[in-house]
Amino acid sequence: MRPAVLGAAALLVAALLLGGCAGVSVPLPAAVQPAADIAVKTGAKAVRASRPISDSEEYYVGRAVGARILARYPLYRNPEVTRYVNEVGLTLARKSSRPHTYRGYHFAVLDTEEPNAFACPGGTILITRGLLKLCDNEDQLAAVLAHEVAHIVHKDGINSISQARWTEVLTTLGSEAARQYGGPAGQLVSLFEDSVEDVFKTIVVNGYSRSAEEKADREAINILRKAGYNPGALAAVLMKMQGKEGAGGIYRTHPPTQERLAKVQALAPATPPTGEELVRAERFKKLEF
Amino acid sequence: MKAGFWRFCGKPALLAAALALLLLAAGPGWARSLTVSRPNQQLYQEPSFASSPLKTVPQGAKVTLIRQEGEWYKVDYQGTVGWLHRQAVPEAAPAKVDLSRLIFGGPVAETKSEEVALAGKGFTPEVEAGYRQKNPGLNYAQMDEIESFGVAPAQLEKFIQEGGLNP
User: Fold this and answer.
1) CATH architecture, domain A55-158+204-285
2) Which CATH architecture has domain B25-149?
3) CA-to-CA distance for A157 and A64, rounded, in angstroms?
4) Which stretches does DSSP call E strand in chain A?
5) Residue of B nearest to A97 (CA)
6) What is the pLDDT of residue A189?
7) Distance in angstroms (rounded) separating the CA atoms of residues A143 and A223
8) Of B70, B97, B117, the CB nearest to A179
């Protein structure tokens, strides 16, 4: 190649690179332009359709779900009990396969006799006084919390948002109006509201699918083992819940069916408490709820 | 004179000049500094909250941006290279294109402006504000209270030890 031609080629490359970086479009021949437009649009659509819900988005949906639950059940404000539940919960969360979330795990007690527990997407776990009372000891409380942590690990709550709804969110985000004006467009707020409703229905009203429950039980047993708790405590607490499948609360959202219990017992049968478990049971007994 | 100028430009020196121009343009991208504006942020091993935290980055700390991947920034903080989430530097403008990668190779798709624009939007605090305005009966105050609950690392260690649990 002659030096002059080489120089011109270098200039062209530089112009193309710098022009592209600065957002200056390089004119294409008329015959190529329509195909390029289609390619750009298709590429943008592929990005939109493929982006999953981010950790921060999961957090904001979870906050809204929690705020809805707290509008129904007030917080039980006992600093000693709150600290204890957070100590047990954090001991478990750090041994799970998702030890960190966007704003971390937080545990709180709801002031109601109705036994139930909720895993808000993003890491806030709520347990009722009714369910605390149902537990005999710390290991059984740990089993309940480990199961809820497992729902956060598997993103069971946030995955209740239908694919069609999420696609609509991404289409709205990609629209020219959203790009130009930004901010909380009314449509996006409505879609957020509908997404919160999807998650609320699953974790508060209808409950998770049977397969999600079984998967969460398996993860809970692993977490209990890794943390040093008795993994048989999950079977023990499920046994206590037997025969109440028709009742509300946790019996509807986490049905303790015979089949579920049998699978849990096969993985980790309930065993008599060890010395260390008895020490933990003592600190559990000292709390008032 | 004119002919002499073009004769000079036609030589390989022009190629060197073009490359020097490119390198100058890429320069600021390498040395971009970000200020952490939230307290107690963690530097992670991978661009995921599930990965291990490497170091705590205090509020006001300066970090050097290496590259961006969605909501995560790969940064250098006092010699430790790790990933910092966007929440730590909310005011940072998204990097448009990583020129160094463009010149020296490597994927540039992760910093395409379309993806950055999408990552920066979605369910954000602004959307939450709109939702709260529409639903004033929700108990966000107690949700904020719950998020303030925490256990100091030393206290958690003590709890684990006293209960005969695994550290």
Assistant:
1) 2-Layer Sandwich (3.30)
2) Roll (2.30)
3) 12
4) 106-110, 117-120, 124-128
5) B50
6) 92
7) 9
8) B117
* Domain range list for chain A: 55-158+204-285
Q: Are strands B41-44 and A124-128 parallel, antiparallel or unpaired?
A: unpaired
Q: Which helix (H) or strand (E) holds B130?
A: helix B125-134
Strand boundaries in B5-155, DSSP class E: 33-35, 41-44, 53-57, 62-69, 72-77, 80-85
Give the residue from A13, A70, A279 with the most B CB atoms within 10 Å of its CB, the best one to mutate.
Answer: A70
Joined together, the tokens standing for residue A268 give 């980790």
How far does A130 lie from chain B, in Å, by closest CA? 19
Q: Do B21 and A7 touch (CB under 8 A)?
A: no
Strand ranges of the sheet holding A106-110, from the earlier edge strand across to the other edge: A106-110, A124-128, A117-120
With H, G, I as helix, E, B as strand and everything else as coil, classify residue A108: strand
Contact A102, A56 (CB under 8 A): yes
A200/B19 Cα distance (integer angstroms): 57
Which residues on chain B are in Cβ contact (under 8 Å) with A106?
146-147, 149-150
Of the candidates A226, A202, A190, the one whose C-alpha atom is nearest the C-alpha of residue A92 is A226
Given the DSSP bridges, would you call strands B41-44 and A117-120 parallel, antiparallel or unpaired?
unpaired
Whether B128 sits inside 8 A of A44 (CB atoms) is no
Tell me the shortest Cα–Cα distance from B1 to chain A, in angstroms: 17
pLDDT of residue A230: 97
Say what the ipTM of the complex is: 0.79
Are B130 and A98 a contacting pair at CB < 8 A? no
Q: What string of pLDDT tens digits covers the 289 residues of chain A?
A: 444 544 444 444 444 444 333 333 334 444 444 444 444 444 444 444 568 999 999 999 999 999 999 999 999 999 999 999 999 999 999 999 999 999 999 999 999 998 899 999 999 999 999 999 999 999 999 999 999 999 999 999 999 998 899 998 888 887 755 555 544 468 889 999 999 999 999 999 989 999 999 999 999 999 999 999 999 999 999 998 876 665 667 777 777 778 889 999 999 999 988 889 999 999 999 999 8
Which positions ≥6 away from A99 have C-beta within 8 Å? A93, B50
CB B68 within 8 A of CB B95: yes
- The count of other CB atoms within 10 Å of the CB of residue B153 is 9
Q: Looking at the predicted structure, is the pLDDT value of residue B116 above 60?
A: no
Give the whole-angstrom CA distance, residue A79 versus residue B23. Answer: 59
